[in-house]
Design goal:
CATH class of the largest domain: Alpha Beta
Helix content: 25-40%
Number of strands: 9
Structural class: alpha+beta
Strand content: 25-35%
Distance between the termini: 14 Å
Order of helices and strands: HEEHEHEEHEHHEEHE
CATH topology of the largest domain: GMP Synthetase, Chain A, domain 3
Radius of gyration: 19 Å
Shape: elongated
Length: 189
């Protein structure tokens, strides 16, 4: 089981898990706080409700926000069981969501892998920088970032990493000024 890699995660879970009752089915943490971003600035929560009773929903969202330490900006979005498949945020929740009810990632709950597939080109780099970048990514003896983060090379100019590690690789690409794209994918275990 993957651990939630969120600073102060125990305090967040302790504060929010008791809120999962009544109309609240589950609370999911998504975003940079759980994707190993070097400096996450906020905490993103999705609250799944059984029913769309807006007075109760607003009160619940307020109570959730009040129960958290306010060191970071907190974003809370409600979604409702009756319309969950119409929600644009659903794929994000499935890809990266940490269920507070289950105390694990949804990908573990439903037994699938959530990955980011990166493709890149090095045409803007000098020959020496291409070699240096390749060493940083792949390593000399399989000790590069891709192996350290348990990523998979998919061929020249592409690789796949767990969605939790996505931010680490975005930072690498930005640092080297690499032109890249990424897409998310589900892989059934």
């Amino acid at each position: 089981m993957q651990k939630l890699k969120l600073s102060k995660s125990k305090e967040i879970i302790k504060a929010l898990k008791p809120k999962i009752k009544g109309n609240i089915i589950d609370i999911f943490i998504i975003g940079s706080s759980i994707k190993n971003k070097l400096t996450p600035r906020d905490l993103d929560l999705i609250v799944l409700f059984k029913e769309k009773n807006m007075n109760e929903v607003q009160e619940s969202l307020y109570n959730i926000k009040e129960s958290l330490n306010r060191e970071k900006e907190i974003h809370i979005e409600p979604i409702f069981a009756e319309s969950i498949f119409k929600e644009k945020i659903l794929l994000t929740v499935l890809h990266e969501g940490f269920s507070l009810k289950e105390s694990r990632y949804l990908s573990e709950v439903y037994n699938f892998g959530a990955f980011s597939i990166f493709s890149f080109n090095l045409e803007n780099l000098s020959k020496i920088d291409k070699v240096r970048f390749a060493q940083a990514l792949y390593g000399r003896k399989k000790d590069g970032l891709l192996q350290l983060e348990k990523g998979v090379s998919l061929g020249q100019g592409s690789f796949m990493v767990n969605v939790e590690r996505e931010e680490v690789f975005k930072e690498l690409m930005k640092k080297w000024k690499i032109n890249y794209n990424y897409k998310r994918a589900f892989v059934i275990n």
